[in-house]
Amino acid sequence: MEAPRSAQQRKRDTLTRLASDVDAWIATADAAGSGYLLPLSFLWDGAGLIVATPSSSVTGRNLSRGGRVRVGVGELRDVTMIDGTAEPMRDERVKDEFAAKHRWDPRKEPGDYAFFRIVPDRVQAWREVNELPGRTLMRDGNWLA
Amino acid sequence: MEAPRSAQQRKRDTLTRLASDVDAWIATADAAGSGYLLPLSFLWDGAGLIVATPSSSVTGRNLSRGGRVRVGVGELRDVTMIDGTAEPMRDERVKDEFAAKHRWDPRKEPGDYAFFRIVPDRVQAWREVNELPGRTLMRDGNWLA
Fold first, then answer.
1. Hey, is the C-beta of A123 within 8 angstroms of any chain B C-beta?
2. Average pLDDT rounded to a whole number, residues B1-7
3. Disulfide engineering: A40 pairs with which of A51, A80, B27, B126, CB 3.0-4.6 Å?
4. By percentage, how much of chain A surpasses pLDDT 90?
5. Of A103, A119, A135, A105, which is closest to residue A18 (Cα–Cα)?
């Protein structure tokens, strides 16, 4: 096990991942309290994670509820966990960025794709158990490091 | 992109992963409909995924509700998705197996760890978009292949 990283290093690593990673695990829930999970391609636009999914899909319906969302980025032993809320994302320039990053434009798909921005209020990052202390990098929307 | 695997091959790959993988993404929800997500070490005992987590943790409380749970195993481009329900797991021999696999015995931890078995009723597996057709390997608790 390597020595735990500093808060500054974890924040740098987290922002690097958000800028370069392709997919993230998106965990949502319906009003009845059933959990759902799906990997989706994302774009980090500096304010949140942009994802696109059919409006009528389970994840689309759950994101539309505006409830709490949790996102897992990275690998199982190099985890970034993001808590936040989803809001509809209608900025066409950000949609262009999303399409450029993924070489895939949901606006050109048949079916009613919706874009959402998942805005984090808490961010945590850890690798092994020795990094559990100090894993919280953002609280109430503010970076701690 | 490689050619899509047959249903039989996907089932074999899925069972191999369940036998050998260490951690899985566990997505739960609370009664108010907030989604939660955490990677946890698991053991596949043939009937379900065994996980251990403090009873008072968010995941512990959500699993105790008995609601729908979704589990992601594997990597973002080689995904196994498992839908099921959690039940308390009290078999000491299975707890021994869990401790042997992970060289970590939650029963020896301070704090009130609880074991759960997540019993799948649906299993899906896919790598890329060309494997989305035929991704359902188990429906209503029955393997289709």
1. no
2. 86
3. A51
4. 74
5. A119
Is residue B105's pLDDT more than 90? yes
Q: pLDDT tens digits for A77-132? A: 888 999 999 999 999 999 999 999 999 999 998 888 999 999 999 999 999 888 98
Is there a contact between B33 and A29 if contact means CB atoms under 8 Å apart? yes
Residue type, B124: Q
Q: What is d(CA A39, CA B95) in angstroms, rounded to the nearest whole number?
A: 30
CB nearest B67 (choices: A22, A33, A69): A33
CB pair distance less than 8 Å for B34 and A68 = yes
Q: What is the pTM of this model?
A: 0.87
d(CA A118, CA A70): 9
DSSP letter at B128? S
Looking at the DSSP bridge assignments, the partners of residue B74 are: B79
Token digits for B145? 């292949």
In angstroms, the CA B80 to CA B70 distance is 10
Distance CA B29, CA B79 (A): 21
